[in-house]
Amino acid sequence: MGAHYKNFIAGEWVEGATVTRDINPSDTNDVVGEYAQADAAQTGAAIDAAHAAFPSWSRTTPQERHDILLRISTEILARRDELGRLLSREEGKTLPEGVGEATRAGQIFDFFAGEAVRIPGEKFASIRPNVDIEVTREPVGVVGIIAPWNFPIAIPAWKIAPALAYGNTVVFKPADLVPGSAHALAEIIVRAGVPNGVFNLVVGRGSVVGQAILDHKRVDAVTFTGSVATGRRVAAACAGAMRRFQLEMGGKNPLVVLADADLPTAVECAVNGAYFSTGQRCTASSRLIVEEPVYRAFADKLIERMRGLVVDDALKPGTHIGPVVDATQLEQDLSYIAIGQKEGAKLALGGERLNRATPGFYMAPALFLDADNSMRISREEIFGPVSAMIPARDYDHALAIANDTEFGLCAGICTTSLKHASHFKRNAEVGMAMVNLPTAGVDYHAPFGGRKGSNLGPREQGRHAVEFYTTVKTAYTLA
Questions:
Q1: CA-CA distances (angstroms) from residue 130 to 124, 125, 127, 255, 427?
Q2: What pLDDT, on a 0 to 100 scale, did the predictor assign at position 479?
Q3: At what angle do helices 179-191 and 80-91 cross, to 10 degrees?
């Protein structure tokens, strides 16, 4: 039996209303821990504590906030191997991926430690004589953070770090599938010296804790990463309350492979983007749009590469792809395999449940050939190790297929043509475009976000985060 962990509310570790068990998807006999789950009343107490702490925290010096965030970063980076192992054990991505994500979380806190002392402002003359104008940025208040399970430490980091850096207080609800990484991060934040009430951790179901955040009048902003359906509910609730919100809701990302592409590079881009992290990334390449002259050659090389992928325990050396996160997600993935076959796509490889030495949610990465962009497997986000290859007559046709989606997070192209690469970067209807790189994989200091059904609100990460976590004030002074 795993250890027992509590929520953190108003500077105290407190028991929850109920308890949830955190199960290892690589070995369902392994209980990572038992985690207290908050109810609506406890969530309200956390929000009230954040509201009470805001006046003093928002007036701390940039240096004070910098020092706290730097201490958080330093501890995360010093413990990256331990935190990465915990992450991989509870979420299922491979150990190198887990350690890499923990490293990224540390880098994010380091970046925003610097941003705390670089909050921008302006001063300029009025059109009226003897009047000065100052434009400053101030924190928005209490920020509700609703995070997903697929990046259980990096996504919370890129929401919590800027919130604190710019002087906001936080109520953090992690996904209930991955409370272990959230709790470990919370302990680090507390040890760094964040004052009571400034940071609060409330683990629990979205229907309870998430809804309580949306219903509370003292929440000034909500940042959410998750499904489109839930994102729409968040947007409606925040619009009704006249509060700002930021949504990241996934994608159906295309990787275009042109006839002039270097095929080994294109294959690596496809494998990395579509199947690593078990395909459980909003940036995954779930549509592979390939020009007809190289369609069969690319398919053959991709299948050959996929046959060499090792699916096994996330912590086992040599594993390329870990398990799906839980039984519900596995059933969803397998249901889309049946849907694709019924729609007429050819299942070239994979798509079946696998058995390994330990009981877990293992699935062979799947590739559909001869898919059409009207099929459900080409239009709906599966969020698993499943991709569909779609033939394209030429570049213009490939671009049209790539843009024919309700999503717009990211898109990639593999080509040796500068003309086509430049045109694609300008004309792909996405927030992020990749050339000869996997669609999945972004830098922590660059803006992250998309268009259409993928995102609503200001960008996350990098210096652009200031747009969401601060509000602009214009002050006039008669000299």
A1: 11, 8, 9, 57, 47
A2: 85
A3: 150
For the chain, domain boundaries: 3-249+454-478, 253-435
Please give the DSSP secondary-structure letter assigned to residue 450.
-
Which H or E element spans position 114?
Answer: helix 95-116
Nearest Cα residue to 158 out of 147, 169, 150: 147
| Homologous superfamily in CATH for domain 253-435 | Aldehyde Dehydrogenase; Chain A, domain 2 (3.40.309.10)
> Residue written as tokens 């670089």?
118
Q: What angle do CA 414, 420, 422 make, to 5 degrees?
A: 100
| CATH fold label, 3-249+454-478 | Aldehyde Dehydrogenase; Chain A, domain 1 (3.40.605)
For the whole model, what pTM was predicted? 0.97
- pLDDT tens across 266-324, in order? 999 999 999 999 999 999 999 999 999 999 999 999 999 999 999 999 999 999 999 99
The structure tokens listed for 184 are 């470990």
Beta bridge partners of 171: 144, 200
Between the alpha carbon of residue 337 and those of residues 385, 404, 452, the distances in Å are: 11, 22, 26
388 closest CA partner among 400, 376, 371: 371
Under-50 pLDDT residues of the chain: none
pLDDT score for 398? 98
Per-residue pLDDT tens digits for 97-108: 999 999 999 999
Do 87 and 280 contact (CB within 8 A), yes or no? no
DSSP SS3 for 255: strand
Structure confidence by residue, pLDDT tens digits, 139-161: 999 999 999 999 999 999 999 99
Query: What H or E segment, with its residue span, contains residue 220?
Result: none
Q: Which positions ≥6 away from 221 have C-beta within 8 Å?
A: 140, 141, 142, 143, 144, 168, 243, 244, 245, 246, 468, 469
Cα(165)–Cα(169) distance, rounded to whole angstroms? 10
* Of 28, 2, 87, nearest in space to 358 by CA: 28
- Point out the residues that are catalytic: 248, 282
Long-range contacts of 118-123 (CB under 8 A, 24+ apart): 119/62, 119/166, 119/466, 119/470, 120/466
Backbone angles phi, psi at 308, to 5 degrees: -90, 0
Reduced to 3 states (helix: H, G, I; strand: E, B; else coil), residue 148 is coil
- For residues 199 and 92, the answer to whether their CB atoms sit within 8 Å is no
The span from the first CA to the last CA of the chain, in angstroms, equals: 69
Tell me which residue has tokens 């610097």: 114
